[in-house]
């Protein structure tokens, strides 16, 4: 009998105020430390001075100062983000004369081992992406520096979660949700064709290619002298990042994957998981894009399942017959999915609700595949 824990499982839990893990490039933060790349050709400014040897901090993070070198090739400009794995630094690549984002992994064995697996997956994704249409972030280089695995990526814009957060969680327009959804499904379909399952799809792991945006006045007035301006990205182009939890379909799977808000019911019930868990996550993500709020805001399994039943109807009996029951919390504030989406989307002009129902099927065998979802009328016949 598979028991559902009523307490916290060992998992990647995130509150709504989630730490920024993405490669954040807010215009207001570009001025952080007036450190710019050296003038090409100046022998004094171009000297490659290695930083003094320092111990890592207590958690195994690389200790650095802005302006120092991360190997002779890369100059550290600023910290872009931080997560369980380590830190992401914006650097200047002296060889290519370009800005890059470097993931500096903590000097702890399990994170180093995970980083090497991620490098293998990134190289596998890149090798098979002949036309450049995978929409997966591109690895440019990797190296081992002072016991830290450093993975060099193209520099991208902010995550869609950070964009929502800075926009006071104003939802994206439906047409923009459609563009994000199409690209995300194309990326996941590409991965699934290679027998890879991302397992950690969430707005933090979807980055805009560009940080440029436009302001649209009049969302709402915050105070008598401050108007909140709704921002929209100038370009809808996105890329998928963070393949540290990606798994091949034929390998042994850990019991718990995905960040809580985007975790499929079969994972919670301990029934095993495969490709469809990514599609459930996409359904949750698309709802969040069109509403500005996470569909399931909870940190406990029974409450999570109760929320699912409140929004989507009862769980299939064959999925819960081996799992303990007793979800005692009635989540009365939640409504049916159609009603929740209709608050933000004109039901008469969009088939988004039908797409979400196809992505959020309880039974993973009935869930839309990425290729099937791309053929959905929401993408084929937008009205």
TrEMBL record:
Keyword Transport: no
Segments forming domain Protein kinase: 74-379
Sorted UniProt keywords: ATP-binding, Kinase, Nucleotide-binding, Serine/threonine-protein kinase, Transferase
Gene Ontology molecular functions: ATP binding; protein serine/threonine kinase activity
Gene3D superfamilies per the UniProt record, alphabetical: Phosphorylase Kinase, domain 1, Transferase(Phosphotransferase) domain 1
4Fe-4S as UniProt keyword: no
Pfam family, any one: Pkinase
Family matches, as InterPro entries: CLK_kinases (IPR051175), Kinase-like_dom_sf (IPR011009), Prot_kinase_dom (IPR000719), Ser/Thr_kinase_AS (IPR008271)
GO CC field: nucleus
Name assigned to this protein: Protein kinase domain-containing protein
Organism: Nyssa sinensis
Organism placement in taxonomy: Eukaryota, Viridiplantae, Streptophyta, Embryophyta, Tracheophyta
């Amino acid at each position: 009998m598979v028991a559902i824990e009523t307490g916290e499982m060992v998992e990647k839990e995130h509150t709504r105020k989630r730490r920024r893990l993405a490669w954040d490039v807010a215009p207001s933060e570009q001025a952080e430390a007036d450190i710019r790349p050296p003038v090409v050709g100046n022998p004094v400014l171009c000297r490659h001075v290695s930083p003094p040897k320092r111990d890592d901090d207590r958690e195994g993070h690389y200790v650095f100062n802005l302006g120092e070198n991360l190997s002779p090739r890369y100059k550290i400009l600023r910290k872009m983000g931080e997560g369980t794995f380590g830190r992401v630094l914006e650097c200047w690549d002296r060889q290519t004369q370009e800005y890059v984002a470097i993931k500096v992994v903590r000097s702890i064995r399990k994170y180093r081992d995970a980083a090497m697996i991620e490098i293998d997956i990134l190289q596998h994704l890149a090798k098979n992406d002949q036309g450049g249409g995978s929409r997966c972030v591109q690895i440019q280089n990797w190296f081992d520096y002072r016991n830290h695995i450093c993975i060099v990526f193209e520099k991208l814009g902010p995550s869609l979660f950070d964009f929502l957060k800075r926009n006071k969680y104003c939802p994206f327009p439906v047409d923009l949700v459609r563009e994000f959804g199409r690209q995300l499904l194309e990326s996941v379909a590409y991965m699934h064709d290679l027998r890879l399952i991302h397992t950690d799809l969430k707005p933090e792991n979807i980055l805009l290619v560009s940080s440029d945006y436009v302001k649209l006045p009049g969302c709402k007035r915050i105070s008598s002298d401050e108007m909140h301006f709704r921002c929209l990205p100038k370009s809808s182009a996105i890329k998928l990042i963070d393949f540290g939890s990606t798994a091949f379909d034929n390998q042994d799977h850990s019991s718990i994957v995905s960040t809580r808000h985007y975790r499929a019911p079969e994972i919670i019930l301990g029934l095993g998981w495969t490709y469809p868990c990514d599609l459930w996550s996409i359904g949750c993500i698309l709802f969040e894009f069109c509403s500005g709020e996470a569909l399931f805001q909870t940190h406990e399994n029974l409450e999570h399942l109760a929320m699912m039943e409140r929004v989507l109807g009862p769980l299939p009996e064959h999925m819960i017959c081996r799992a303990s029951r007793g979800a005692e919390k009635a989540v009365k504030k939640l409504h049916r999915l159609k009603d929740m989406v209709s608050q933000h989307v004109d039901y008469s002009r969009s088939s988004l609700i039908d797409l979400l129902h196809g992505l959020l099927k309880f039974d993973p065998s009935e869930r839309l595949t990425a290729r099937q979802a791309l053929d959905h009328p929401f993408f084929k016949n937008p009205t």
